[in-house]
Structure prediction request, 150 residues.
Amino acid sequence: MTKHSLLAQQVDALLYNEPNLMANLANAAALLNDSLTDVNWVGFYLYNKSKNELDLGPFQGKVACMHIANGKGVVGTAFATQKTQVVADVHQFAGHIACDSATNAEIVVPLTDGDRKIGVLDIDSLKFDRFNADDQAALEEFAAVLVKHL
Prediction:
């Protein structure tokens, strides 16, 4: 069993039979923050359809941007395209929104259940080029399992 599939199994067990959205997202953020190395922020942005923006959800880390427009920055781009964004150097990402100027790398995974767009999982690192294809696969698997509990 890889560490990746272990994270997905852990979140599945942790959230078993719990219907509370905020509790589930809070515990998922805590699990990732505790399990991943070289990360400085782990959290969620949830889609607010009426405002066509992503609103800050449960997270672990420093204070964060509270609203991000759909399609803006790494978070908004991941949501608008429904494709995971892996950014080795956020300072080179056109339109990057610096919620924490110390962050250097980022990965953002869309959270979608069929046609229902929920939001994104956002993870930041102080380390340039922190996230790779293995991280992407693991976090996409984690997100797919998490969505079943939302």
Remarks:
- The chain has one domain: 4-146.
- The mean pLDDT is 95.
- The chain has four helices and six strands.
